[in-house]
Write a structure and sequence with these properties.
375 residues, 6-stranded mixed beta sheet, alpha/beta, 5-stranded mixed beta sheet, 15 strands
Length: 375
């Protein structure tokens, strides 16, 4: 039996709640972690029609991109639309889980799916998140104890670099000391200067594992007072973060690029809006799934030819165009994020398969864009 807890373990690994913005509301909204999950529905919005689709389709779990309860509430009484949704989900034993800005900042995430939909290559984050804080531990050990110390530090979490473990640097030197009265030296005699051939070992580690690594170091070291240093390393940008910047397989005039976008995304009444010289050549593109007019400074700094996003407002757009670059391509919010559903579906199934579990998954094709007619 696959439980909701099993599914959430995979989703939280793909879209860690720690990656969400501070103002966001992600995670489990309704559902019992011990309940069985056989069928999962993915959708952008937890709208009434999507809730009905989940209930009528016999789905045990609905995973949406947008939160149902983004702002704090004092009541979920069935006297309000959202309250009725909560009651119906619980009544029909349908769990609701939200992956919002944690999915925006994931890699692959929402903007990766948008970039892939239009064929962008060599993508990188537009707004890179900092990588995990890292330390470097340096310890001095008698030469004969080098391998044992490496093993102990690696077991505690040090020395992991990409696809490698137990990665370390060591170099030979001499350690010297004079044991004082009351000391119990492993090597040497109280009152006498001792010189010992030693190796200097260096290994990196996630800062969150610092305590465990230091405890392992002191437990494995033969000295009464081992010498070691801990350095906090500079924090580098990661491959996670909002938006993506990439290049098209071949350059296109802006008008043709806009048609490519229209053909690659679900149709909406909003359509595709374009701002810029329709003949200009588009090769380097920035994309942000969802509302993106807060990222104009980063987009200009990226030196792109076009910016594809949603929800562009008049004043930020006209101000951006005053700079001359880039061209703007604006689509419906829902359409810009819908491609992510297929990625989330595939990654969840793969993650569960690695754990020996399977579920039946489905992607909602209901268009929940707010606009239903353009005249």
């Amino acid at each position: 039996m696959t439980t909701l807890a099993d599914v959430l373990a995979v989703l939280d690994r793909l879209y860690d709640p720690a990656w969400a913005e501070s103002w966001d509301a992600v995670g489990l909204v309704t559902g019992d972690p011990e309940q069985e999950v056989r069928r999962v529905l993915f959708a952008v919005d937890p709208m009434r029609e999507v809730i009905d689709e989940a209930i009528d389709g016999g789905f045990d779990l609905l995973v949406t991109h947008h939160p149902l309860l983004l702002r704090g509430v004092n009541s979920v009484a069935a006297t309000t639309p959202k309250g009725r949704v909560v009651h119906d989900l619980i009544r029909h034993n349908v769990a609701l889980h939200v992956c919002h800005t944690n999915a925006d900042n994931a890699n692959p995430g929402v903007s990766d799916a948008l970039a892939a939909a239009i064929g962008l290559r060599d993508t990188r984050p537009l707004k890179a998140m900092p990588d995990e804080p890292m330390d470097k531990v340096v310890v001095f050990v008698p030469v004969a104890e080098t391998q044992a110390m490496l093993d102990a530090l690696a077991k505690a979490g040090a020395g992991r670099i990409g696809g490698y473990e137990r990665a370390a640097w060591s170099g030979a030197g001499e350690g010297t000391f004079r044991p004082l009265d009351g000391a119990n030296p492993t090597i040497g005699t109280v009152g006498d200067i001792e010189v010992v051939p030693e190796n200097r070992i260096e290994m990196i580690l996630p800062r969150r594992k610092r305590r465990a690594v230091i405890e392992a170091l002191t437990a494995a070291h033969s000295y009464e007072e081992p010498a070691y240093d801990v350095y906090e390393l500079a924090q580098l940008p990661s491959e996670r973060g909002g938006g993506r910047v990439g290049v098209l397989a071949e350059p296109l005039p802006l008008a043709d690029f806009a048609r490519l976008v229209a053909e690659s995304l679900p149709r909406t009444e909003h359509g595709v809006r374009v701002s810029g010289d329709l003949e200009r050549t588009i090769e380097r593109v920035a994309v942000v799934g969802g509302a993106g007019d807060s990222e104009f400074d980063r987009v200009r700094a990226a030196g792109v030819d076009a910016y594809l996003t949603a929800d562009l407002r008049h004043h930020p757009a006209t101000e951006a165009r005053a700079y001359g670059d880039p061209a703007l391509v604006d689509v419906a919010h829902w359409a810009s994020e819908w491609p992510w559903l297929a990625d989330a579906d595939r990654l969840l199934r793969n993650g569960l398969a690695q754990r020996g579990s399977t579920v039946d998954t489905h992607i909602s094709t209901l268009c929940t864009d707010a606009w239903t007619l353009r005249i």
